[in-house]
Amino acid sequence: MRFRLTPRETSFYDMFSASADNIVTGSKLLMELLGADSASRAEIAERMRAAEHAGDDATHAIFHQLNSSFITPFDREDIYNLASCLDDIMDFMEEAVDLVVLYNIEELPKGVEQQIEVLNRAAVLTAEAMPNLRTMSNLTEYWIEVNRLENQADQIHRKLLAHLFNGKYDAIEVLKLKQIVDVLEEAADAFEHVANTVETIAVKES
To answer: Which residues form a coiled coil (predicted)?
Structure first.
């Protein structure tokens, strides 16, 4: 890590950790969604909406701190990108749950549980990685594993699309389910964007 003569603003590290912990909460709500009936799904959607609002608050707090800080722990652009990418994850997860409820989906296609398991694993890894930004240590395995998970998510997504277009679903149902699995895939992509941003930061700080 580069030697610095100026102090660093350390509250960013805590805020990034809080944002990532909130994403773990969102991923657990996605897991709950899998086995829930229609009535329970509406309640899960409300809790997910609250988690998404909490994520927005965390993101705004980071932006406010960024705009009011003379000294930052790493490049301002990287702080902005990392906060934005973390926020995107929560947005996509909340959208997926909301669509399930709005479309009144009775049964999610086989394979969605694998998508959600990948997201849950990526969420835990991301939350574990954020505190390590303080020292820029033990991060390489994190971004390698998240990139591997994103590749796995791509494969699951392609299989899901093939399943949806195999003729067993009517056209309207296909459109509804495809939108849900596409949003879950976007969440996986967003986790990779976070990992890539962390890698960029670590390279700059090395």
So the answer is: none
Which tokens in the block code for residue 135?
A: 């020292």
More confident residue, 18 or 9: 18
- Length, in residues, of the chain: 206
CA–CA gap between residue 167 and residue 1 (Å, rounded) = 56
The closest alpha carbon to 181, from 160, 197, 162, belongs to 160
Backbone angles phi, psi at 136, to 5 degrees: 55, 35
Cα 25 from Cα 51, distance rounded (Å): 7
Top pLDDT among 70 and 200 is at: 200
Written as one string, the DSSP assignment of 25-73 is: HHHHHHHHHHT--HHHHHHHHHHHHHHHHHHHHHHHHHHHHHHH-SS-S
Q: Structure tokens of 109?
A: 């296609």
Alpha carbon distances (Å) from 101 to 15, 37, 42, 177, 195: 31, 10, 6, 12, 30
Question: Tokens standing for 97?
Answer: 């749950």
Cα gap 183→96, rounded to integer Å = 6
Could you read off the pLDDT of 103-137 as tens digits, one per residue? Answer: 999 889 999 999 999 999 999 999 999 999 999 98
> Half-sphere exposure of 106 toward its Cβ, with a 13 Å CA cutoff?
2
Encoded amino acid at 96, one letter? A
